[in-house]
Amino acid sequence: MSEPTEPAYQPPPPLPPAPGYGGYGAMPPAVYGQPEPVGPAPSAVMYAVRLMFVAAALGLVSLVVALSTKSTLRAAIAKKNPDFDSQKLNTAVNVAIGAGVVFGIVFVVLFVLLALQVRKGKNWARVVTWVITGLGIVSALASLSQTVAAASRAVGLVSGLLDVAIVVLLLQKPSNAFFKPRT
């Protein structure tokens, strides 16, 4: 007896083209986010950008001042922690100086990058600048009640005044028009 064989597979016939789809070409590419010409930045924005560069440079000066007032920092840490031996005291001072240097370098790089974006008219950079300068203003005011070296206090106050000037310049009418979204 012979076994029945299965018929060979036959693919179905192709479907006829749908009516009305044959005469169109490819869809043109979408145009997203074409930058509109912004024009030159108003003088208030340019002054704010310059002050941001000055604030970044002042951040570097602040790092030098912090490193030069290491003995004042050591005395302040020793006063607040009388139970620290010399090894713990050295560790605390070095950690504080190291954290300050790392934070200072990050601040300088971030502020320079923000200044470049503000100059291009990026509103998000203006908002981030407001947040950072607002924190700087609060920090400058808080430094008035702290026991720090006179040089550190002076640098902090000058930095706080720069922050106030940057905020005021970026809030002016010409600045608002420069950062307004374009359609």
Radius of gyration, taken over Cα atoms and rounded to an integer in Å: 31 Å
Number of helices: 6
Distance between the termini: 82 Å
Shape: elongated
The major beta sheet can be summarized as: none
Model regions low in confidence, pLDDT < 50 over at least 5 residues: none
**How many β-strand runs?**
0
The portion of residues forming beta strands comes to: under 5%
Helix/strand/pairing category: mainly alpha
Q: What oligomeric state best describes the polypeptide chains here?
A: single chain
Overall helicity? 55-70%
Walkthrough of the structure:
The chain has 6 helices and no strands. The chain has helices spanning 43-68, 70-80, 86-120, 123-143, 150-170, 173-179. The longest helix has 35 residues, at 86-120. The chain starts with 42 loop residues before the first helix and ends with a helix.
Question: What descriptors fit this protein?
Answer:
single chain; 183 residues; mainly alpha; 6 helices
Short structural summary:
The chain is mainly α.
Write the layout of secondary structure elements.
Elements: H1 43-68, H2 70-80, H3 86-120, H4 123-143, H5 150-170, H6 173-179
